[in-house]
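Review the following:
>
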Amino acid sequence: MLSFVDPSPDPASGAEARGAMGMRLFLLALGILFAASMLGYVLIRFSPRSPAAGTLHLPPLLLLSTMLMLASSFTMQRALAAGRRADTAALRRSMLMTLVLAGAFILVQTPALLSLLGQHQKFRGSGLGLYGLIFFLILLHALHVAGGIVALVRAAAGAWGGPAVHNQPALRYASMYWHFLDGVWLALFAVLWLSR
């Protein structure tokens, strides 16, 4: 009898397929959260009671943090490529660089967030709550970056575990999440910058 079912399925590949699907669903849910948050900001920003265009001042550090996020996404992609090639030295270098850039992103975001919080306190009495909303959106992203750093540390720990872990799912999932955070930051920064 002819059967189209593989009699000996590889349990690891099934688990990885389920893991990848779970990661995609997780990123979809986060994407909806960030898209809804940005849409809410745009609707509030362009409401009749909102201040005129050009009156909001974003901290210049947000430009630096954007460069850091782009650079970290580049080094994460290099780490993934090194893992696929089983190039341990390149994988370790790229993961370490990604972690350094991710930490720098958080360090740069901190004074930018404090500046926004100060602006929010300054204008709160006038009814201008946009700085508080901008603070919330950037903080929401920064908290997800902090969670991403945990995933990066886990994937980086695997890079020091030997050749068998080069293609570990943790590295792929960390890469998916990190590129997602980069895309979200670019979209968020563009929305905030263009609606100043």
Q: What stands out?
A: The radius of gyration is 21 Å.
